[in-house]
Sequence to fold (299 residues):
Amino acid sequence: MKSYRMIAAPLLLCGLAACNGTPTNGLIPGSVYQLEQLNMVKPTGSAFTQDLTADYRNLANYEKGEYDWNAQQVFAKKGLAAAAGNAPPPERLEDWSFHHRDHAAVDDLAAARTRLMSMLASDAPVRVPQWSSTAQTNFDCWLHEQHEGWEIARIAECRGAFMTAMDLIYAPPKMAAAPAEKIAPAANPAIYMVFFDFDKSDLSPEARRIIASAARAITAGHESKIKISGYTDTSGTVAYNLKLSLRRADAVEQELVRDGVSADGIGVDGKGEGDLLVKTPDGVREPQNRRATVELMLQ
Fold:
């Protein structure tokens, strides 16, 4: 998770004293004081810092549910900083220890952070504050989970959400209709992606947050078509995976409806093992293939 460096020195997670139960820079193992504050605070500042407040709150509460006391405190402190109108920076790789170091994964994170910092220095936090917040908080989530190194599905979920948000931020702008003619709908729709645990169709807190972002875009815009597609990895039979992929798509649809989107304009499809995000042989449990997408087609 993120270390908080807005005021104090960097909070170095696991591998330092904090992971052995010794407080580091104000971290008190087992304490939820900062999270309780964050859950009650009314955020101020820009749309970006307010979105960061909500996203860090979700991450802190998730880590509390995982009994990761140090991580939930770090996220809560960052959420409180954002609530006060101050945008905390993304984590630096050099502030973390990577046990059983996976060099390819660390290189992937380093490239992602370079891309993220470039985005944060642009107009994106003002132009698309929610997607910018989604990118930053999922990068920190990805970094934290890679640091722990054992929750493979969670690593893939946070990485995938980061990549999707960055792609949305830099998607080509849609053309306005010319006065004398109607422009056809964009060929490349906005796409939101969520991931699932093995053989599951229930939504994680992170998936619900991403779906809520899609719902806000839908209700604020003029989408004429919403397409939800569910997918699986190649583990299991083709027939079973078709049914599982449809259950995943149905779960996303139900969440969109709960978030205020009319079911009338939603199309749902189960793709099973078709169109793998990561190409694998049959019988492989690949976390990034266990997903569902929400495609928004503009009028």
Summary: The longest helix spans residues 238-258. The longest strand covers residues 223-230. The CA atoms of residues 156 and 285 lie 12 Å apart. The radius of gyration is 20 Å.
